Fold this protein.
Amino acid sequence: MIGHRHLYASAVAQHDNLGDLILRKVGIDWLRSTGHDLHVLAEGMPEGFVDALCLSPADHVHWSKRSWLLHMARHARAEGVGLLLSAGPQLLADNPRRLANHALTLGVATAVARRGATAKVGTAITGSGERAASLESAIARTAAVFSVRDQQTVDVLGLDQSAVFPDVAFAESFVRFYSGSLTPHEDRSIAALSFREDEAGKVESALPRIVAWCTAQRLRPVLVVQVQRDDAFARRMGASLGVEVVGWASGAAHGAQLTKVCEAYAQARVVVTNRLHAAIFGMVHEALPFALEDDKRKVARTLAPLGLEDVTWTAECSVSEAAERLLRERLILARARLEELRVALHRAMMLGPESS
């Protein structure tokens, strides 16, 4: 145990992406539960995104990175601070801009660690920059807690297998907050479909077969938008194929959209997607995941540590009670592992788990 401490986290992310919103919300909520002062960076983020984080009136929101860093430096000199680096995918590239960002992060993490603690949870590496990988490995060594969400990241950074944890979006807290319950809807009659606009060609060719497959499974297909830039594509596909769309209209609040999305997944028996957090949002509502994968196999590599390795959608896939039972078992495992991670984060921030 220590005395009062100031903790720092960033809410900066893709502002139109509900998956990014949840990654930031879970980490911030974990820090807040320590009881220490929380400083959240929100530079460049729309107010709707920040509102959906449901920050406490006691939290300090910094709309300027300079202000956030200056406060961090002052508190670090006075009594030490805790710093949670952002979760999610990270591209390793040996270009000057990205190397400079890695070097800056390493410098801040090292400075914080001298009298406080740095943590980073939920990292997923893409790319092959050797110098960038070396800097990220140094950040991992500096951090009191460093977790990743897939085997590829372990291999690239040379980490111990114990560093692998489920994606933090599996934490049940966000579902309870936005949809009120983890209990699936009694009428599990829909198939939730959610696709990336930037892979429109592949999706357009597969979507008629996916809709036909849904019908064969006696499920009603519904296109669900949880990244706003996908909205126009989803509406176009919905109009073309006569499929209902849970869209995200321009200007609609992030929190309201997240509630709509959770309500749709609560009625879904399956989710077919090439977006990782669409798969996870569906799974936490007990919808079976099927991935329309690209070459990166982002969905499959993230779910593999949970023992869900064969999730690629084909027209031969079927929905079974055995698969649903396995999913429920894996969800229990994911939440237990994430609770271990939350407790480790508490310890890193100098607050014992018995007091959390």
About this structure: The longest strand covers residues 117-127. The first helix runs from residue 18 to 32. The chain has a mean pLDDT of 91. The chain has two domains: 6-174+335-355, 180-330.
